[in-house]
Amino acid sequence: MSKLILLIVGAAWLAVLLPPLVRARINKSPTISVSHFRRHLSTLQSSNLRHPQGQLRGMSRELAPNQTRSRQASHLSHLTGPILRPQGTRSHQPRSGDSYARELVRQRRLHTVVGLATAVVVSLFLAFTTRSFVLVYAFTLSLIALLGYCYWLVQLRSQRDSTRYMRQFRNRAA
User: Fold this and answer.
1) Which of the 8 DSSP states describes residue 92?
2) What dihedral angle (degrees, nearest 10) is formed by the CA atoms of 114, 117, 121, 124?
3) Greatest alpha-carbon span in the chain
4) More confident site: 1 or 86
5) Segment 122-155, tens digit of pLDDT
6) pTM (2 decimals)?
């Protein structure tokens, strides 16, 4: 009887806590936004170290318009620019290209790892509290799935790094 009560309480907790967590992951929760901000900030910092004039251009942006930006503008921007964004604001980066596709793949893989880890933790908790063999098997399967997925990600990364390494030597030899 106590196992049944613990199982009902655990299911109620999952029903209450799991939907907001999943919804936050789908709608890009603040933690994901913070990690994006940190990654973009480190990219900006590294580019400013290579080009120190970039800091000065950024400070003078309000006083003098950037000439390269006006050359890159679309031929229809004079029609839609004032409607879509107020004067003096930057246009948004388009959601296309290789870097955007890589970011989507990275986010999908991150969400998969987080989901598998959550399944491992929940099934472990329920297996200990209820001492049910089915939940022990669920924990074992979810742990194997998590370890297998992490192994696959490590293999992908090592393969990517080895191709970059080989490309580096091909570029130097040519």
Assistant:
1) P
2) 150
3) 75
4) 1
5) 999 999 898 889 999 999 999 999 999 999 999 9
6) 0.47
For residue 45, count other CB atoms closer than 10 A to its CB: 9
User: Which letter does DSSP use for residue 111 in this model?
Assistant: H
The dihedral through the CA atoms of 59, 64, 70, 71 has a sign that is negative
pLDDT of residue 71: 46
CB atoms < 10 A from the CB of 24, how many? 13
Helix extents (H) in the chain: 2-26, 30-50, 53-59, 67-72, 77-84, 98-130, 133-173
In one-letter notation, the amino acid at residue 26 is: I
Could you give the CA distance from residue 148 to residue 141 in angstroms, rounded to a whole number? 10
Q: How far apart are CA 131 and CA 74, in angstroms?
A: 64
Whether the pLDDT of residue 72 is over 50: the answer is no
Q: Is the dihedral of CA 119, 29, 31, 42 positive or negative?
A: positive
**DSSP per-residue string spanning 17-41:** HHHHHHHHHHTT-HHHHHHHHHHHH
pLDDT in tens, 15-34: 778 777 777 777 665 556 66
User: Within 13 Å of residue 42, how many CA atoms lie on the same side as its CB?
Assistant: 5
Contact present, 142 and 116 (Cβ < 8 Å):
yes
